[in-house]
Amino acid sequence: MISCLDFIFGETKMLKRNMFSGLLLIGVLFMGSGCVETNKGCVTSGGDLNDHVSVESYDGWRLGVQMWSFRKFTLFESIDKTASLGLSTIEMYSGQKISADTGDATTHYTMSADIAEKIKAKLKSSGVKVLCYGVVKLPDDEAESRKVFEFAKNMGIETIVSEPKPDALDLVDRLCKKYKIKVAIHNHPKPTAYWNPDTVLGALKGRSKWMGACIDTGHLTRSGIDPVEGIKKLKGRIVSLHFKDVNKFGKRKAHDVPWGTGKSNAEAVLQELDRQGFKGVFSIEYEYNWDNSVPEIRKCVEFFNKVGGEFKSSGWRNLFADDLSDGVTKGKWTYNEGVFTRGGGGDLGTKEKYGNFILDCGFKLAKDSNSGVFIRMGNRKWIPWLEVQVEDSYGEEVNRHSCGGVFDVLAPTAITVHKPGQWNRLTIRAKDNIVQVVLNGEQTVDMDLDEWVEANTNPDGSKNKFKIAYKDLPREGYIAFQDHGQAIEYRNIRIKELE
Asked: pLDDT tens for residues 449-475?
């Protein structure tokens, strides 16, 4: 069986790659070329790999942030905060200011096409997707409700979160089926229309699979309802959650606290969702400490991954412990709030060896900084191990030393690194002879090591510095983050081993 990650990264692509190889051989006979030349680099084909991966610890659960958590900030600032947490999904709400450079434009569904494209570009370059939109009105006015669905379709949104009035439910269900977009009925606290799960269940009776519930566990707690019991009632109809833990039970003014420390029975809620076999989206909606909530939200993420990973592990885990007790370094790397910072004196490496894996992380460069991610190192010296280049290549022409390529061996397909001082997202997949790289939402490397058959020579005939053919490199080894003597930070370093 092909897993979701294999589908994204591999097994189906291997079939395409093998088919392509036959066509390529024919092309070689006529053209005398051994590879496809792309931006001065020899890149093997194999289809598009133009996205990052979800790194949650529970297989089938996706964790993101409801942008209302950052309502005091612009959407673009909120996306950056989401990425800083190592998360790759968001739920937008209607009315948030877009950015400092887009005037008075907001996330209302009537936004211009130009604004929508700017949001898409920001999301892609940040490695973030928008999966849900709400809470938004869906009136018994087909023309107006269609605008919401059209917006969702254009943005790639899977679920609209709403509290439609009873007389609009037939229309909403029909539009759901037409657009193949789900609507999840949301509960605010008592005495709002859907505060009671029984009311939500009644509204969904006889409705299609495209309609379900968005359970707000904090609002259930505020309304004096045990979230576990509410979730049991709605078994099979839950589409998404606004997940919370609040400090008081039955009090409307109760405020959010890090998950697992409040009165919402957070661990038992996750256990019940696991028992039900729920698969879907959790949106963190943290409505407290508005100006500086990221540290508290990070604790929620850690709780979610720890507890969820114990139920049904996806295989994703942190590469290093916070205290670097499982790392090897001669330098002074430090850790704080998810960020590893170079202090000078040596690389940051693993004690454990890795063969087939997916590695996901963020990095931030200073101007003219240089670093790199070494994989499958046979020993802890730099040469000749495969290095995914990390350097300030912003605004430069593509070459074999550019960020996102394989150092001196394979140029990236394009320059996708952000300006110095901005965070980047990097995903590396190593599977047998295939190495693939995605940088800021763009595939930059799709490499078949078996094509590097000669030492000091790349398949296109250009020379490299390595006195070994890359096909002969070990297929297992250490991973290391290079200290090249310049400022570099890495964050949210996660790994999943592959068979």
From this structure: 999 999 999 999 999 999 999 999 999
What is the DSSP secondary-structure string of 362-431? Answer: EEEE-TT-EEEEEEEESSSS-TTS-EEEEE--TTPPP-TTSTTSBTTTB--SS--PPPTTSEEEEEEEEE
**CA distance linking residue 69 with residue 75, whole number of Å:** 11
**Spatial CA neighbour of 17 closest among 410, 432, 434, 404:** 434
> What secondary structure does DSSP assign to 92-130, as a single string?
E-TT-B--TTSTT-BS-TT--HHHHHHHHHHHHHHT-EE
Round to whole Å and give the CA distance between 307 and 333: 28
> Which residues lie below 8 Å from residue 287, measured CB to CB, with a gap of 6+?
68, 69, 218, 244, 255, 256
354-393 pLDDT tens trace = 999 999 999 999 999 999 999 999 998 878 999 999 999 9
Domain match, 300 and 333 both: no
Pairing relationship of beta strands 41-42 and 37-38 according to DSSP bridges: antiparallel
Residues 205 and 331 both lie in one domain: no
Q: What is the CATH number of the domain that holds 391?
A: 2.60.120.560
Q: 45 and 69 share a domain?
A: no
In whole angstroms, give the CA distance from residue 429 to residue 356.
8
**Residues 32 and 70 occupy one common structural domain:** no
Give the chain's residues under pLDDT 50.
1-48
Neighbours of 318 (CB within 10 A): 17
Question: Helix (H, G, I), strand (E, B), or coil: what is residue 5?
Answer: helix
Q: Which residue has the tokens 């004196």?
A: 345
Q: Which CATH number does the domain housing residue 284 bear?
A: 3.20.20.150
Position 230 in a domain: yes
Cα separation of 244 and 239, whole Å?
Answer: 16
**Would strands 423-431 and 327-329 be described as parallel, antiparallel, or unpaired?**
unpaired
How far apart (Å, rounded) are the C-alpha atoms in residues 67 and 107? 10
Same domain, 98 and 215: yes
* Cα distance between residue 211 and residue 378, in whole Å: 53
| 331 plus 299 within the same structural domain | no
pLDDT score at 390? 98
Domain that holds residue 422: 22-52+320-497
Phi, psi of 438 (to 5 degrees): -120, 125
| Residues ≥6 apart with Cβ < 8 Å to 315 | 59, 496, 497
Gap between the Cα atoms of 352 and 227, Å rounded:
41
Measured distance CA(373)–CA(426) in Å, rounded = 10
Single out the residue in 255, 289, 311 at which a domain terminates.
311
> Token pair of 37, please?
């030349």
